[in-house]
From TrEMBL:
Keywords: Coiled coil, Membrane, Transmembrane, Transmembrane helix. The chain crosses the membrane at residues 6-27. The lineage of its organism: Bacteria, Bacillati, Bacillota, Bacilli, Bacillales. It comes from Cohnella soli. Residues 216-247 form a coiled coil. This is HEAT repeat domain-containing protein.
Length: 358
């Protein structure tokens, strides 16, 4: 009997919860519809004044927003207008209007407890190009409530506004997911300013350094400073940076000194630094680099790596050898006479594949 009462009680609680949720959703939908109607009526009653403002710059008292829904109504209108019409720099009537009436509102919104309100505010600061809010954006970065997504948008805004201390700010961006950080760097860095990032490279934290290398490779950026930095990173104490520099150099297909790289790779092999399982990525990228550049001085290193205990590494080494002139013959010799059975097997496998270079 007691169990039955408990079950009935739980059913009643569930029904009450579902009813409450339904009532809330209906109320929310009705409230949203009423708010939309209020915004539509407010704009309709001011059509002529708004047209006069947009085409002459005259601001009638009637169109000055006071309540939140009025700000939202103007944001909707101005967003649509800017999407279809571009002003000349000296003939933009919206600029002074936004600075006068929207900036105080956006200052308050940036401090709002709700994340969605703050993000929406950043969107409109961007849309209306409100450079006057740079100081507020700086302050927002140091706010404990500011999320990685907000920081991402703020850095982009500061870059757009040409903030003088942007490089200083992004040296310590706080916790930001790797994908957001890489996306941010891809928006900030390009061929024209890559040297500026390289000048600051050693002052960035590891996450930023890794993201810079990712973007350099993805965008195929080039410069003498960058080349020097990439080659210096081959001797970095940080394995992740070594792997990424190898990968980037492999994608570029160039190093300034073959002998220097050969000596470096030999040193890693001789000291047993590549005997550990965690160095698989490094060995893989080294094999790829030697295949990308295709210099005969790399061949001894590739012949060592084709007997690597990791399949991916020896496969990459065999692929690289196949790309060399006469590479098929080298693989055939390995397949026939190498002491390591795995080396013989992978050499045979890559002999039968279509060559990338002959």
């Amino acid at each position: 009997m007691t169990s039955l009462l408990i079950i009935l009680l739980l059913i009643v609680i569930l029904l009450v919860f579902l009813l409450a949720a339904y009532v809330y959703l209906v109320w929310q939908k009705t409230s949203d519809r009423r708010r939309a109607d209020k915004k539509k009526r407010w704009l309709a009653e001011r059509t002529s004044s708004l047209e006069q403002f947009l085409f002459t710059g005259y601001v009638a008292r009637l169109i000055v927003p006071v309540k939140e829904y009025q700000y939202e109504a103007l944001e909707d209108l101005l967003s649509d207008f800017l999407a279809n019409y571009k002003f000349d720099k000296d003939e933009d009537p919206i600029r002074d209007f936004v600075d006068q009436f929207f900036v105080p509102q956006y200052k308050r919104r940036l401090r709002h407890r709700r994340w969605s309100v703050r993000m929406n505010t950043l969107y409109f600061i961007d849309l209306f190009n409100i450079k006057a809010m740079q100081e507020d954006l700086h302050m927002q970065l140091s706010d404990k409530r500011t999320t990685p997504e907000e920081s991402f948008e703020i850095y982009l805004l500061l870059a757009k506004f040409g903030s003088a201390d942007l490089m200083q700010l992004i040296r310590n961006p706080g916790k930001m997911p790797a994908f957001l950080l890489t996306e941010l760097v891809s928006r900030l860095m390009n061929q024209d300013n890559v040297d500026r990032f390289i000048d600051e490279f050693n002052r960035f934290d590891r996450s930023w350094q890794g993201a810079i290398l990712e973007v350099v490779r993805d965008q195929n950026l080039r410069s003498e400073k960058l080349q020097q930095q990439l080659e210096e990173l081959l001797e970095s104490e940080n394995r992740e940076l070594r792997v990424k520099s190898l990968k980037t150099l492999a994608s570029q297909g160039y190093v300034s000194s073959i002998d220097r790289v050969v000596r470096l790779l030999e040193r890693y092999g001789e000291k047993g630094k590549w005997d550990k399982p965690e160095t698989i990525g490094e060995r893989l990228m080294a094999a790829r680099l030697m295949g990308s550049i295709r210099d005969d001085r790399f061949m001894p290193g590739l012949k060592r790596l084709i007997a690597d205990r990791a399949y991916n590494v020896r496969s990459e080494a065999a692929k690289s050898i196949r790309q060399y002139r006469g590479g098929k013959g080298i693989l055939q010799n390995i397949a026939e006479s190498h002491l390591d059975p795995y080396a013989r097997s992978i050499a045979q496998e890559w002999m039968e594949r279509s060559p990338d270079y002959d």
